[in-house]
């Protein structure tokens, strides 16, 4: 869906959109994450797994946003992208929020150029803070949610899934403003706007 359609659509829905800022992954990384999910699904008694097209790394969750706030958000994100360099990350390990089964959230973590990822996230939070969005008080924990409420018997430790992650680096050349919607009973994320990062000789990709 294009930006104008999304805004017009939101006007019909009463004006609010549920937005977040995220990093998306190349197809081979999505396939790798899906492979892990499939192995986990085969072993799990229960779990709500994120569909491949919805896998992402959140930089900031904005929640409900009015039409009037949309323009300032896009401008603020452009200002950040204009001065932030592209960088590389890779999948690191599989972990969880919640210590035991059923795990509240099972995620894939990232490593690589974490200082640049953290800088980008902080700058986005600061820029959006200036246009009225409160900062999350919890420290930022970059993660890709793979599944929620996942029931795994004790034998399949999360470490086993970490060991099957191949750790090829991939470049992060842009971030995206996304809208979260329920359509026909399904959670879908639409990309509304892409923000290209600076690619210079100093970008280590
Ligand atoms: P999660 O994957 O850890 O649930 C879209 O909902 C994205 O925004 C998800 O990646 C989600 O993170 C993140 N997010 C952060 N805070 C949220 C909140 N309060 N409600 C819903 N999603 C949130």
UniProtKB/TrEMBL annotation:
Its EC number is 3.1.4.58. InterPro entries: Cyclic_Pdiesterase, RNA_CPDase. A motif (HXTX 2) lies at residues 143-146. The active site is at 56 (proton donor), 143 (proton acceptor). A motif (HXTX 1) lies at residues 56-59. It catalyses: a 3'-end 2',3'-cyclophospho-ribonucleotide-RNA + H2O = a 3'-end 2'-phospho-ribonucleotide-RNA + H(+). The keyword Metal-binding does not apply. Gene3D superfamilies: Cyclic phosphodiesterase. One of its GO terms (molecular function) is RNA 2',3'-cyclic 3'-phosphodiesterase activity. Keywords: Hydrolase. Hydrolyzes RNA 2',3'-cyclic phosphodiester to an RNA 2'-phosphomonoester. Belongs to the 2H phosphoesterase superfamily. ThpR family. HAMAP family: RNA_CPDase. This is RNA 2',3'-cyclic phosphodiesterase. The lineage of its organism: Bacteria, Bacillati, Bacillota, Negativicutes, Selenomonadales.
């Amino acid at each position: 869906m294009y930006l104008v359609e999304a805004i017009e659509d939101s006007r019909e829905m009463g004006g609010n959109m549920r937005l977040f800022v995220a990093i998306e992954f190349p197809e081979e990384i999505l396939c790798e994450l899906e492979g892990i999910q499939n192995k986990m699904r085969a072993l799990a008694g229960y779990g709500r797994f994120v569909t491949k097209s919805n896998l992402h790394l959140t930089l900031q969750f904005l929640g409900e946003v009015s039409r009037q706030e949309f323009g300032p958000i896009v401008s603020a994100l452009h200002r950040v992208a204009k001065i932030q360099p592209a960088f590389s990350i890779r999948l690191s390990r599989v972990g969880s929020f919640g210590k035991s089964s059923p795990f509240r959230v099972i995620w894939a973590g990232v490593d690589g150029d974490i200082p640049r990822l953290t800088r980008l996230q902080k700058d986005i939070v600061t820029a959006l803070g200036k246009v009225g969005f409160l900062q999350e008080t919890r420290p930022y924990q970059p993660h890709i949610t793979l599944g929620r409420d996942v029931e795994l018997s004790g034998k399949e430790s999360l470490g086993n899934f970490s060991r099957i992650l191949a750790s090829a680096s991939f470049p992060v050349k842009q971030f995206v403003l996304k809208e979260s919607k329920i359509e026909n009973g399904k959670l879908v994320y639409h990309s509304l706007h892409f923000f290209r990062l600076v690619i210079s000789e100093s970008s280590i990709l």
